[in-house]
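Lab notebook, entry 504. We have the chain sequence and a SMILES string for flavin-adenine dinucleotide, and the next step in the workflow is to get a structural model of the bound complex before anyone spends time on docking refinements. Request logged below.

Task: model protein plus flavin-adenine dinucleotide, output structure tokens.
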Amino acid sequence: MNLPVSRNPVTQTDAKLVARLKKLVGAPGVLTTPTQLRPYAYDQCWLSIAAAAAGKPLSRPDVVVRPESAKQVSGILELANHRTIPVTPWGGGSGVQGAANADRGGIVIDLRRMNRVRSIDRTSMTATVEAGTLGLDFEKRLNRRGLTFTHLPASIHVATIGGCLAARGSGVISTKYGKIEDHVLSLEAVLPTGEVINTMAVPRHAMGPELTQLFIGSEGTLGVITAARVKIRTQPEARLFRAFTFRRLADGLAAGREIMVTGLRPAAMRLYDRNSAAKVLAEAVKTAIKPQPTLLMTFEGDHPDLTRLEAGKAGKICRAVRGQDLGALPARQWWDNRYVFYYPPYHPKLPMIWGTVDVVMDYARAMGVYRAMCSALKPLAKKHGLVLTPHFSHWYEWGVMLYARCRVHHPPADYEKAVALHDLYFKTALDAALEAGAVLNDHHGVGVRCAPYMERQLGGSFEVLRRIKSALDPNNIMCPGKLALGQASTRRRKSGSARRRSAR
Ligand SMILES: Cc1cc2nc3c(=O)[nH]c(=O)nc-3n(C[C@H](O)[C@H](O)[C@H](O)COP(=O)(O)OP(=O)(O)OC[C@H]3O[C@@H](n4cnc5c(N)ncnc54)[C@H](O)[C@@H]3O)c2cc1C
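Result returned:
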């Protein structure tokens, strides 16, 4: 995968810079030794992990700074901007696209000392939380008060609230409560030039464009998010589970669509195809699962009678397309194990190649996208033993996400060849899905892996993003090259050369 070309001067850790940073955040908050920098050498993208293992880390910070306040972040950015030093924010480093890698060196800002819950407003049901707070810590603090944050990513043990916002993430119960962008009311952020800003206090206003959303998904390119005011709720009174199998995946998809378009809202809904039911679901639940398309649903709410009614109506929809009722157990067991399969001893390890191809599309295209991706990857399955286990999750009124997990258990031992195989399956799957009408992606962000697709996906609006970036970050210090920003767009390059030709 081609990394963006460096333009900014990569800083050498110099005594003067380190002294200034220590003055800003205190000596214990500045890390410079190889041992101290090692944890920042890779995020959870397979490309990052493989590169680090091969002694070619994609992330090479010169210095890591651990601020405790927005004021300290502001001081760091002012200094970096003055000296044109690349800056990369670091949340939990759990991203899977290589976004948090400091691939041009410079300063990494580790936000995890900014981990306070500044306030909880039980009347408005909101909390103001600092960006470096780990998802699980925030959830535990709320749970102690009978409250919950309904953004629960599978990476909750390691991801920060700021990282979830910056990567525009989603959680396992997003089908009922929405993605992270639906949870946030307002943000405190530090601009690349050091100004601390607060966005409008509520997201439903008509005072111009909603600027909070500009920072959601910006992956550190437009500044550092330091705190957010988010929606919270009381823990639900009732939680119910349902599971169904279908003869055909299309029947399960039709049932899921009908559930969503008729206004029912399972908290989680996951439709596994035959292969993933046999290989993934069967591993996650103790109940015997047949290799058949399988739909798991979780319903929850504050009114147990309404929750029962909702689950009952959804069951009726499944039976109407000849779904076979498996009862509650498989879905309950999946719920109980919903995080464990991402962590040791179950998580994938080198030399295996792994990664998810995440696309989202409307219902009209969903089956077509699934078929296109499966058939495009067939030759790679035959030749390289690629195992594809897709499921549909994160449902909307208009469409659904396809979460296609890919694994090659016995890849080439040679690093370059393994990377080439990774890139080949990723490009093959994505090109097929995009050709069939999907959009890249639902919630895993851009990082290094998807940067080459930015312009293709955003079309003419990519230029708008480029202009916003250069207005906010004139010296291009924030994650230069990420989101494919900070390099001339092909559109511009083309029109530039066309202008030069006509001038001649
Ligand atoms: C096992 C596992 C399961 C996962 N499950 C999910 C899931 O269910 N849902 C999901 O959405 N993702 C999931 N992910 C991906 C990952 O956890 C998310 O992308 C998460 O949002 C990253 O948060 P982080 O704090 O680790 O951010 P990082 O990985 O540290 O950073 C991600 C990006 O955000 C930027 N950034 C971080 N903090 C800030 C800040 N305060 N201000 C500005 N920019 C910032 C970084 O520079 C980088 O560009 C999973 C990953 C793993 C390894």
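Notes for the group: The two ends are 36 Å apart (CA to CA). Worth checking against the assay data. Confidence is low (pLDDT under 50) at residues 1-11, 488-504.
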